[in-house]
Specification:
Elements (H helix, E strand, L loop, with lengths): L1 E5 L11 H15 L3 E7 L2 H6 L1 E8 L10 E6 L6 E6 L1 H4 L17 H18 L9 E5 L6 H8 L5 E6 L7 E2 L3 H4 L13 E2 L2 E3 H8 L2 E4 L2 H6 L10 H6 L4 E3 L26 H16 L9 E8 L5 H6 L1 H6 L3 E8 L1 H13 L4 E5 L3 H10 L2 E4 L9 H7 L3 E5 L2 H6 L11 E3 L4 H15 L2 H13 L4 H19 L1
Parallel strand pairs: 1-2, 1-6, 2-5, 6-7, 7-11, 11-12, 13-14, 13-16, 14-15, 16-17, 17-18
Antiparallel strand pairs: 3-4, 4-5, 8-10, 9-10
Helix pairs in contact: 1-19, 4-5, 5-7, 10-14
The structure holds adenosine-5'-diphosphate (ADP) and alpha-D-glucopyranose.
């Protein structure tokens, strides 16, 4: 079965969050499950530099009037999965991130950047590449790829089955209706039964309307997004499509997140050597960050985008009691300037107990995962969440809100089979109820070791998810015929 996997980011080429981790690991697992999968994404400079075995592919002319567009072929580093980069220099050859410029503002032409990604995916989906490789399924991810099913629908006639995966309902790709002719979408689709959303165009809604199957990244999130509280205005539409909607839990890439062979750690460790290994990694982290080198202080780690979703304001509200209890905090992240500043100020006020690294650092993220005792994920909502999976594998007990994929992957310590600490109310007191239990457990080494060992033994493999996608692809193809 041939599958075209379309994404706006993929690790290790370019990454802003968990979607990149998924797009790095899932195609590899699909290939291991026997599928012929190719990744497609924009030819950002980092992606052109990062792929291996570069070849030039089809010249697509200037399909939407945004510039000459060619396919550049190659392979993902590490996994060797084939990849197509969409090379249209006026759109993608620039400094800055995939979605934001260097000042943190949305690119003003994001509708063009991601319409072209969707258009080329649909085109290759329908007619194939220059070697007549024609996919049976186009699997598109997040709003950036949302127009792919719409183009395919517009072009009519036989085409691939379409599967669309929601990684986050908050980001919808909303643009003024005037962009429709520019991106080659029939303005007649600007209706409530089409791509219209409160007077504007929504790329996410477009996908949810036109994709054959819809998935999201955990079973609990698949239920939450059908409610008013979790649906971001699209719960009604999702309810109407519930027969085609399913939740497939993400996995963790245990080749990258492997404490026993992680080159970024001061001392790699396994379940058997965790006590000594984590002690060394904790000391190394404290030393690097200028924290008091105290082996007994419970050290909490955070690696996160600093957006409202992640609930870091709840953590800020708890810093007083947390420090009072003798804890330390190491936080890595960036995003909302007010949250960044608040943590920076805390570190200035408490240099020996709070360390903040504002920015992005792959190596620091591994060191925090290994050196911390517990890992905080107080998210208001969390479609899946990957950092808690990495934390568990590193023997770092998650303290998290019982929502989305966090609820599906962490078992609360109270159950007797626990792997972490969960709370329900998205309030400062709610988070404190879990923090207090975590601090108690930390002071009882026997209990802590049992929890830690169980967390390290959890398996969230990608191959299980790949098998579930394979079944879904087969069903979608047969329903599409
Ligand atoms: P989301 O996709 O909502 O950001 P996930 O938990 O699914 O949340 O994935 C986040 C990914 O991004 C993880 O791999 C995490 O380690 C990484 N990450 C987040 N912030 C940073 C940062 N500042 N530096 C390095 N890695 C980060
Ligand atoms: C999104 C979600 C996160 C999820 C990731 C990968 O960015 O916020 O919960 O783990 O996508 O699916």
């Amino acid at each position: 079965m041939k599958v075209l996997f379309v994404t706006p980011e993929a690790h290790p080429l370019i990454k802003t969050g968990g979607l990149a981790d998924v797009a790095g690991a899932l195609p590899t697992a699909l290939a291991e499950a026997g599928l012929d999968v190719r990744v497609m994404m924009p030819a950002y400079p980092e992606a052109l530099d990062g792929i291996e075995g570069r070849t030039s592919g089809a010249d697509l002319g200037d399909p939407l009037g945004f510039g000459r567009t060619k396919l550049v072929g190659g392979y993902m580093p590490d996994s060797g999965v084939p990849v197509w980069l969409i090379d249209c220099p006026p759109l993608y050859n620039r400094d800055g991130g995939p979605y934001l410029d260097t000042h943190g503002n949305d690119w003003p032409d994001n509708h063009r950047r991601f319409a072209l990604l969707s258009w080329v995916a649909a085109y290759v989906g329908k007619v194939g590449d220059e070697r007549a490789w024609i996919p049976a399924v186009v699997h598109a991810h997040d709003w950036q790829c949302g127009l792919a099913p719409v183009y395919l629908n517009q072009w009519r006639g036989p085409g691939p089955a379409t599967v669309f995966t929601i990684h986050n309902m908050q980001y919808q790709g909303i643009f003024p209706k005037e962009i429709l002719p520019e991106v080659g979408i029939d303005p007649a689709l600007f209706t409530i039964d089409g791509v219209e959303f409160y007077g504007q165009v929504s790329f996410l809604k477009a996908a949810l309307k036109f994709a054959d199957s819809i998935t999201t990244v955990s079973p609990t999130y698949a239920r939450e997004i059908r409610t008013e509280a979790g649906g971001w205005g699209l719960n009604g539409l999702l309810e109407s499509r519930k027969a085609d909607l399913s939740g497939i839990l993400n996995g963790a890439d245990y080749h990258i997140w492997a404490p026993d062979s992680d080159p970024k750690l001061a001392k790699p460790y396994s379940r058997k050597t965790v006590e000594a290994g984590k002690a060394t990694c904790k000391h190394d982290l404290q030393e690097r960050l200028g924290l008091a080198e105290d082996p007994n202080a419970p050290l909490f780690g955070v690696v996160s985008r600093m957006s409202g979703q992640k609930g870091l304001d709840l953590l800020l509200a708890n810093m007083g009691p947390l420090l009072q209890a003798g804890a330390q905090l190491a936080i890595l992240g960036s995003g909302d300037p007010a949250v960044e500043d608040a943590f920076r100020q805390l570190a200035v006020d408490h240099p020996k107990t709070v360390a903040v690294h504002v920015g992005y650092s792959e190596s620091m993220s591994h060191r925090i995962q290994a050196g911390a005792d517990a890992f905080l994920v107080p998210s208001r909502f969390e479609p899946c969440g990957l950092t808690q999976l990495y934390a568990m594998r590193y023997g770092t007990l998650p303290v998290a809100r019982r929502t989305g994929g966090l609820a599906d992957t962490i078992v609360d310590a109270e159950s007797g089979l626990g792997t972490g600490f969960l709370f329900d109310a998205p309030t400062a007191d709610g988070l404190w109820s879990a923090l207090a239990r975590c601090l108690d457990a930390y002071r009882q080494p026997d209990q802590w070791q049992i929890l830690r060992d169980r967390a390290m033994a959890q398996q969230f493999d990608w191959i299980r998810a790949a098998e579930a996608y394979k079944t879904l692809y087969q069903e979608t193809i047969s329903n599409n015929q």
